[in-house]
Design a protein that fits this description.
homodimer, five-stranded mixed sheet, 527 residues, four-stranded mixed sheet, 16 helices
């Protein structure tokens, strides 16, 4: 018997088997699995009543609200495609994403209405914009639907699609990543991708039934959506953290007996050093997973000591649903002390359903000796269907049948992956990917700029920040603050260069490509 | 990215990620996952070298040997179909199964050679018979290959099929069940069935990485093969119990720190009451799962007290890979004392990936109120592809899109299934299914028998045993011992009637079907 693999089955199961359990805690809002499923079904009904067609893209501009979590299922039950948006993006970036995906419907939190107002003229495909909560101010925002998420589902007839009519290989979610190219790319995940990724993660993480997890990572982000699905099928409690606020995080752990949360290294560093930490009962914690960037063994040790729980990493990409690896200690009897912290600071070893290899530039497999490094490639059930409407970029990423992560790594004989270097051009700042190409293209748009190269420089708080190396056009003048002001018009703040250095030439390869490696060596420090 | 779902991936994963862990303990034999995978690959190489073709059936007549466990993967890696045989069957039954499946190759433990000698003349399709262990006595058994399992794999080149070439919907395992009809039926499971069943079971059972499980249920049996697969992918330790011997079971728990085992009620009853139990350190046990027949709440309580661990049921059928349900307490905060034991003695609530409903005779869904009962039907990823070469029986079992278990049950509002009655005609004796039709057909083959009906009667040790009600042909005489002797020629011992009662008439419906229900009421006790 073949039953289509779709995450819709997760909520169906939980609603029937864990009906009265608490499903979601979001500020003062609490729902059971019965209510969670009912609201998701009503969202589906409302979308259908508003003529959303199968395969339509339905976007959300939201923090970690219970409504966004409901949409993980409700949008799919309308046979539409969920498109969660990164709330940190600039209006021009959001306009690009909404146009590229030709989204028909947008749900938005009140705080982001000015952002919508800024990009709306450039997004003619948007048919309806609904407020997620609050009362629509249609005087200020005349394009806003008078119906909010809440009034929509209040009036709607619940709708659940017959699971058997679902094509498990159809796209159900799109997330945009900055990726390696200059424009965000839509990562298209199928029902089967999402389903099997959740299963691989649950088994790889030895997830217990009825766990309590805090969504400390945005639900619009790699990491967030993987957890949401396996937590639902195991009847766990979703504790929403709308923004990173250490005191609120501590309070929620104590109040909801949170067992698991996840963070980027800077978040965990802040929590370890926070004066309020010892004021709360955090004894319910079982583990903290660090992702987004490599933590130091020191941070692993400090966090384990501060929280009296296991601390390890998770590694993955938007394109892989995301999780591929965990550094959760797999041989607890054979490793202790500082060696254990070092092992737990690595990217880790693959989850079930996941194969990882390293390859050279010609896609030859390299030895897994812990020394040789190459590009990390993977084959896993969670690897995306492809980039939305980008068959060439997709083919490039999947060459030779393996998905190319762009990360340089070693693999040791025990199967542990250590990241050696990141994708050549990507800067990771506070857990966010920044495409240097995208920043360069923005800088190159300034009339005084001849050539631009953006490289990472170390930053105490954010890990890395972008630094721009600029060759001016002859007879032109420009100051660093002027160029940064130009960038801010087009890019999210975190993508704008923190430093600008004007240079005479940029070193290049024979075929004219800028030698970033050399630039990093020469200029890879705050100027 | 779609990667075929096949259990072969489980051993590939474990061999790479848990290479040095102990994989199998079988008497004095121990292997790591590296060795387990190497031997499985060598078995595949040996089969291919002996011209086994894709889709060929390779049978095993074996207790819980490490070789049978290796075959779970090695036979599949040769792209052949694994056919484990029930060692308790009579030669005529084995002959039927091997002929029905037209198996080409048989591996056999030395102790079963006389059985093979007895059925071999009736199985012309068998091309090769290899001893699993020991030295072939080709003088006594001239049809025995001089090459044993061990010499085969010693000489073989390891072979691993490219996972991408596997059709996940192809049949990879066949198990014969006595089912409801008079002849054993081959339950054909696909790679996808087996893969997803293992995943559903692992998540439903909250299986931890690196668990230690004793295979106390035969690996040729429903239950055994489900556990084998999820234990492999999570890098657990397989502890083989070749035959049910309480002292050996206790010894293995202590020696190998076994965390989980499974048994039918009679096994657990014996263990609870065994005088040697307290002589062993059984503190590693985390849970015992009881299946095959419904245990009493009293047994659950006694076993929890005797073993200081959780004791609950699992429910499933050969046709469902097998596990559908667990009675593992899902609301530990809301239930205690005798009520908890009652809940844990029920068939339980469905695993993820599994839906259960009850239907009336016209396949209308019935209310899940804990009172109304109907036939239990299911939709689950583990439900078989179909009965081997029996399209009509398959269509009948899958009518209306649901697999019909033949078990009568209630479902309560919390989702718990309680079995009310078994398939009308099935007798379950010591955890083995006995088809009353099959026994009746054997009895009807006796020249003196006119009509025969077989019903269950209660039995202290085996739960139930078959009782035969016989109408003799006019002017014929027959004694009970004579009839039982006749049955023993054709049937496994446990299927032979324990009691025979001669009657004048058998009550029938208008269409001539014997009214079993009435017979149970009138004669359902030892005569």
């Amino acid at each position: 018997m073949n039953i289509p693999l779709t995450p819709l089955r997760f909520l169906r199961h939980a609603a029937r088997q864990f009906a009265t359990r608490t499903a979601i805690v979001d500020r003062t809002y609490r729902s059971t699995y019965t209510q969670f499923a009912d609201r998701a079904a009503r969202l589906a009904g409302a979308l259908l009543a508003h003529n959303v067609q199968p395969g339509d893209r339905v976007a959300f501009l939201s923090t970690n609200s219970h409504q966004l979590l409901e949409a993980y299922y409700g949008v799919l039950d309308a046979q539409a495609i969920l498109l969660p948006l990164n709330i940190r993006l600039a209006p021009a970036e959001l306009a690009y994403i909404l146009t590229d995906s030709s989204a028909s419907t947008l749900f938005v939190e009140p705080q982001f209405l000015p952002v919508v107002a800024a990009f709306l003229p450039q997004v003619p495909t948007l048919k309806r914009i609904h407020l997620i909560e609050g009362t629509p101010d249609t005087a200020t925002y005349p394009w806003l639907s008078p119906e909010t998420y809440e009034t929509l589902i209040e009036k709607a007839e619940p709708h659940q699609t017959d699971i058997d009519t679902i094509d498990e290989d159809a796209v159900c979610e799109i997330f945009y990543t900055s990726g390696t190219s200059s424009r965000p790319k839509g990562v298209a995940l199928t029902h089967r991708n999402v389903y099997l990724h959740a299963y691989n993660s649950a088994i790889g993480g030895s997830i217990q039934n009825g766990s309590v997890e805090m969504h400390s990572i945005p639900l619009f982000h790699a990491n967030g959506w993987g957890i949401a699905h396996f937590l639902t099928v195991t009847g766990g409690k979703h504790v929403m953290l709308r923004a990173f606020d250490p005191t609120e995080l501590f309070r929620l752990i104590e109040a909801e007996r949170v067992q698991y949360f996840r963070g980027v290294p800077i978040m965990v560093t802040v929590l370890v050093n926070h004066p309020d930490r010892t004021k709360y009962d955090l004894s319910s914690l079982k583990s903290i997973t660090i992702g987004g960037a490599a933590p130091s063994p020191t941070l692993i040790r400090q966090a384990e000591q501060a929280f009296s729980c296991e601390v390890y990493t998770g590694y993955g990409l938007t394109e892989t649903s995301p999780t591929l690896c965990t550094s959760r200690n797999k041989n607890p009897d054979n490793i202790a002390g500082e060696e254990r912290y070092i092992a737990q600071s690595l990217a880790g070893y693959p989850y079930p359903g996941t194969r990882l290899k390293i390859v050279d530039a010609d896609d030859n497999f390299l030895p897994e000796d812990g020394v040789t490094f190459g590009e990390l490639v993977t084959r896993s059930d969670g690897v995306m269907h492809g980039y939305w409407n980008q068959p060439e970029a997709t083919a490039e990423a999947f060459r030779n049948g393996w998905f190319h992560t762009g990360d340089m790594a070693t693999i040791n004989p025990e199967g542990y992956v250590a990241l050696v270097d990141r994708k050549k051009d990507i800067i990771i700042s506070g857990g966010e990917n920044i495409s240097s190409l995208e920043v360069e293209n923005t800088l190159l748009a300034h009339p005084a700029v001849l050539e631009a190269a953006v490289i990472p420089v170390p930053h105490e708080r954010w890990g890395e920040v972008p630094k721009a190396l600029i060759v001016l056009k002859p007879s032109h003048t420009l100051t660093a603050p002027e160029l940064i002001a130009h960038a801010r018009v087009h890019l999210a703040g975190y993508k704008c260069p923190a430093y600008v250095q004007f240079v005479e030439i940029l070193p290049k390869t024979g075929t004219g490509k800028i030698l970033k490696k050399d630039l990093r060596t020469q200029y890879g420090h705050p100027s």
